Amino acid sequence: LALVVGGLIAVVGMAYLTTIWVYSYFLVMDKGMGFWDAMQLSRKKVSQRFWMTFLCLFVGGIISGAGALFCLVGMLVTVPLYYGMFAYLYDDNFRDLAPQT
Fold first, then answer.
1. Mean pLDDT computed over every residue of the chain
2. Cβ atoms within 10 A of the Cβ of 46, count?
3. In this structure, which of 11, 48, 64, 86 has its CB flanked by the most CB atoms within 10 Å?
4. Is the predicted pLDDT of residue 5 greater than 70, yes or no?
């Protein structure tokens, strides 16, 4: 019982951390930010729209997983769809942010 409860707490914690830091890598690449600054900005922006970001990642993961179930052929359609969804969400949140020099 303790293992199941501990596992559930770990899964919820990892889902939360993955969701709030999802943009960090892209902010470093796209906007030229430092690692810690990108993590902080990602956390602040996602905190404003947490459930929308989580829902997008969750639905995109289900769609990509369904593509993997169909003999990996479905991934040719679902993985680009997932990244397109994520790119649109990133652009919607950070299009006004100027790159750092």
1. 89
2. 21
3. 64
4. yes
* Helix axis angle, 2-20 to 50-69, nearest 10°: 110
The CA-to-CA distance between both ends of the chain, in Å, stands at 52
Of residues 57, 60, 33, 32, the one with CA closest to residue 46: 57
Q: Which residue has the higher pLDDT, 100 or 9?
A: 9
Distance (Å, whole) CA 18 – CA 61:
13
Residue 18 CA to residue 12 CA, distance in Å, equals 10
Q: Which amino acid is at 38?
A: A
CA dihedral for 61, 63, 64, 69, sign (positive or negative):
positive
Angle between helical axes of 24-31 and 75-94 (0-180°, round to 10): 70
